[in-house]
C-alpha cells in the first residue's frame, strides 16, 4: 500500500535528492566551551559541549575519556505545546541520545580527554522533521567549536576530531526517493532511514525501515546509497561554514 498521490507533498524549493539548506553559527553560548546553533530548513538545534574533569564510572583506569549526549525538545518546538520532558524514562529521547552518543564518539579521538567526560547537549528549538539527524550535525559543529578553542588557547596541541560525522534522513514518498524529509514528507513516507556516516562515505549507523508494508532489498539499498551521498554533500557545506565562522 502506498499513500495516495493527492496526499503526497510536492517539493517547491528543491529536487528529490537535494538536502535542505544548512546554516550554522558557532560560539553562540558564552557560558559553554563549545556551542553551535544549526538550522536545517525550518528545523533548529542548539548544541553545547561541557567538559568535566571526572571519568565516567565505566572508564576509570582507561586510556580514553568518554563522550555522552543528551537530547530534549522544547515545549513549543512543534505546532502544539508539548510538556517538558521530566520523565527520565522517555523511550524516544533515550533512543536518540544513544544514537547521538555513538555518532559523536565515532568522530573523536578520546585519548586526548583521558579521565574526563564530554557532555554534548542538543536541544530542539524548532522541529520540522529530521531532528535527530540535525542534532548529529549540530553536535559535530559544537565539538568543532570546542576543539578549535582548545587549540587556539594552547590547551591542546593535536586536533582530536578524527572523522567528520554527519547524518541525513532518506525516504520513499509514494514511489519517489527523497533526501532529508521534512515533517510533511516524513509522516506519509512508506519507508524512511536515518543514515549516520562519515564525510568520506563510511557508515556508522542506520536506523529505520518500512512504514506501510515491506520494501525490496533494491529499494533499501537505493535509500542507503542516497543517504551516504547526501551526508557527504551536507558535510562539505558544513565544513566550509565551520572553517569560516570562528567565533573565537
TrEMBL record:
Quote the catalytic activity from the record: tRNA(n+1) + phosphate = tRNA(n) + a ribonucleoside 5'-diphosphate
E.C. code = 2.7.7.56
Q: Name one GO molecular function term.
A: 3'-5'-RNA exonuclease activity
Q: Which gene encodes it?
A: rph
Q: How does it assemble?
A: Homohexameric ring arranged as a trimer of dimers.
Tell me which family the UniProt entry assigns to this protein.
Belongs to the RNase PH family.
**What is the role of the protein in this entry?**
Phosphorolytic 3'-5' exoribonuclease that plays an important role in tRNA 3'-end maturation. Removes nucleotide residues following the 3'-CCA terminus of tRNAs; can also add nucleotides to the ends of RNA molecules by using nucleoside diphosphates as substrates, but this may not be physiologically important. Probably plays a role in initiation of 16S rRNA degradation (leading to ribosome degradation) during starvation.
Show where the Exoribonuclease phosphorolytic domain sits: 20-146, 164-228
| Name recorded for this polypeptide | Ribonuclease PH
SUPFAM superfamilies with a match to the protein in the record: Ribonuclease PH domain 2-like, Ribosomal protein S5 domain 2-like
Name any Gene Ontology BP term: rRNA catabolic process
This protein's superkingdom?
Bacteria
Q: Which organism is it from?
A: Deinococcus cavernae
Query: What keywords tag this UniProt record?
Result: Nucleotidyltransferase, RNA-binding, rRNA processing, Transferase, tRNA processing, tRNA-binding
Lineage, uppermost ranks: Bacteria, Thermotogati, Deinococcota, Deinococci, Deinococcales
Residues binding phosphate are 92, 130-132
Amino acid at each position: 500500500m502506498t499513500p495516495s498521490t493527492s496526499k503526497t507533498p510536492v517539493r517547491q524549493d528543491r529536487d528529490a535528492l537535494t538536502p535542505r539548506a544548512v546554516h550554522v553559527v558557532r560560539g553562540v553560548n558564552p557560558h559553554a566551551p563549545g556551542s553551535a546553533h544549526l538550522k536545517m530548513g525550518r528545523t533548529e538545534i542548539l548544541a553545547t559541549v561541557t567538559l568535566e574533569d571526572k571519568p565516567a564510572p565505566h572508564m576509570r583506569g582507561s586510556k580514553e575519556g568518554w563522550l555522552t549526549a543528551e537530547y530534549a525538545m522544547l515545549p513549543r518546538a512543534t505546532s502544539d505545546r508539548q510538556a517538558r520532558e521530566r520523565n527520565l524514562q522517555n523511550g524516544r529521547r533515550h533512543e536518540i541520545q544513544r544514537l547521538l552518543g555513538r555518532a559523536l564518539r565515532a568522530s573523536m579521538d578520546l585519548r586526548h580527554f583521558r579521565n574526563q567526560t564530554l557532555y554534548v547537549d542538543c536541544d530542539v528549538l524548532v522541529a520540522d522533521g529530521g531532528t535527530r539527524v540535525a542534532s548529529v550535525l549540530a553536535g559535530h559543529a559544537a565539538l568543532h567549536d570546542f576543539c578549535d578553542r582548545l587549540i587556539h588557547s594552547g590547551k591542546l596541541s593535536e586536533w582530536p576530531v578524527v572523522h567528520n560525522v554527519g547524518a541525513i534522513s532518506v525516504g520513499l514518498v509514494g514511489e519517489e526517493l527523497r533526501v532529508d524529509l521534512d515533517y510533511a514528507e516524513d509522516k506519509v513516507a512508506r519507508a524512511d532511514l536515518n543514515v549516520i556516516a562519515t564525510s568520506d562515505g563510511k557508515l556508522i549507523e542506520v536506523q529505520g525501515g518500512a512504514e506501510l508494508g515491506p520494501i525490496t532489498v533494491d529499494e533499501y539499498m537505493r535509500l542507503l546509497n542516497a543517504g551516504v551521498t547526501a551526508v557527504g554533500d551536507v558535510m562539505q557545506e558544513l565544513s566550509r561554514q565551520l572553517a569560516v565562522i570562528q567565533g573565537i
